[in-house]
Design brief:
2 copies of one chain form a homodimer. By secondary structure, chain A is of the alpha/beta class. Chain A has 2 domains: 123 residues, Response regulator (Rossmann fold, 3-Layer(aba) Sandwich), CATH 3.40.50; 83 residues, Orthogonal Bundle (Arc Repressor Mutant, subunit A). In chain A, 56% of the residues lie in helices and 15% in strands. In chain A, the strands form 2 sheets. Chain A has a 5-stranded parallel sheet, sandwiched between helices. A 3-stranded antiparallel sheet of chain A has the order 6-8-7. Chain A is elongated and about 60 Å long. Chain A starts with a strand and ends with a helix. Chain A binds a DNA duplex through helix 9.
DNA sequence: CGTCTTTGTGAAGAAAACTTCACAACCATC
DNA sequence: GATGGTTGTGAAGTTTTCTTCACAAAGACG
């Protein structure tokens, strides 16, 4: 189910948007203002955010910046009644995916949502990883061991992986597997077996390259 | 000034060793037992540790392990009255640099210290960095920016670096510079100008390699 | 000389990363 | 259908990393 968050201080608009989006088959979370949106964001993974540019306290642009810090690739559509080139440019420079002006027609909004989601899907399969998460994933020796084991063994079940790494606490393994999964380095197949993705293999190559380059 | 820590529970021996080492031009820190040694280690950078194998509470071998966790390359000379092959082998396997038996002659101890320090110096210029510190240094985007700036500008003064990165709080800069310095990526010349080391340049190369390899 | 900028240090606080614990759903199998 | 291994989740606690604050020594400069 595609998860969408709508952030707008106008209650009527917020709820009518929720209705429309749910009608179109999306799961919708509502937020009244920026702080609330950030809390939702911390708890849940969204596929798209609809964001009002003008909001009390934490403005839409600043909120967009904060969202970018947390989730650099999460698509965000900005919505505003005050359409100005400056605002639009500023929003797009901050990484907004689209920019819709109020009042808007339902079908225009849905078209924008559909298009942005489609781009994101395309984008995500185009091996786009961000450097921070790649490097911080790899900076943990335990996670490197996981990758190395998987490369050697091909595919492993959860418990076998634990045993190979002589780990008694399986929740720790879960924690690191989750990070590696989010970084795009490994995935589970239909039998729940863990295996490296192409990026995972490449990441290991990179580590070897680093080691060679830096001696040690 | 070369910093040496002496860890021994025998007060007389500890102090006579301190006297000898200070006479030889070293700066000496004394620790009575393992816990104290670890505290010193957290606060200060040492060049060498002299460690009694037999100590109450935290034994020398276990302490050696703990030291290895914190500082994988810090030379440690083990000292013991109970010379046995098993102990010696165990200590060397844990990464001790040398193994001296009590009672020892002053010149034998100083010879060992001199030799181990010499090896460490040789080792450290052989570009041996450990992968964890390399990767975690590079996983911070701010630190990557510092490296990039230095590569572009050649050498920079502290405040100029701050200004280029639009940083108002200079202590934050100090924090990250320290990490990069410890990772061996940059150094200060005689005029206090910061500049990249060979390893620093190579690290940046590695980052570029990663980016190319992983797309984005 | 006093004052301002530079270049730091150390400690306290905040945030992020990591570990551990308590629990539960699911499956095989006896 | 009880039992035991597998595969997880969420929350609490710990440790590490990062930021901020308070302060100070050293040099530049009027």
């Amino acid at each position: 189910m595609t998860e969408i968050m709508v952030v707008d201080d106008d209650q009527d608009l917020r709820e009518s948007m929720a209705e429309v989006l749910e009608g179109a088959g999306f799961s919708v979370t509502l937020a009244w203002r920026g702080e609330e949106a950030l809390e939702h964001l911390a708890r849940k993974n969204f596929d798209l955010i609809l964001l009002d540019l003008v909001m009390p306290c934490l403005g839409g642009l600043e909120l967009l910046g904060r969202i970018r810090d947390k989730a650099p690739r999460l698509p965000v559509i900005m919505i505003t009644a005050f359409a100005s080139v400056e605002n639009a440019v500023a929003a797009m420079r901050q990484g907004a995916s689209d920019y819709v002006t109020k009042p808007f027609r339902i079908d225009a909004l849905l078209a924008s949502v559909g298009r942005v989601l489609e781009e994101a899907r395309f984008e995500s399969c185009r091996t786009s990883l961000d450097l921070d998460s790649v490097l911080s994933s790899l900076s943990n020796p335990f996670r490197r061991k996981i990758l190395a084991q998987l490369e050697q063994a091909g595919a492993l079940r959860f418990m076998d992986l634990c045993r190979r790494l002589e780990l008694k606490d399986h929740t720790k393994m879960n924690f690191h597997l989750k990070i590696l999964k989010e970084a795009g380095f490994l995935e589970q197949n239909e039998d729940k077996l863990y295996l490296l993705t192409t990026q995972g293999t490449q990441a290991l190559d990179c580590v070897r390259f680093l080691m060679k380059k830096l001696g040690d």
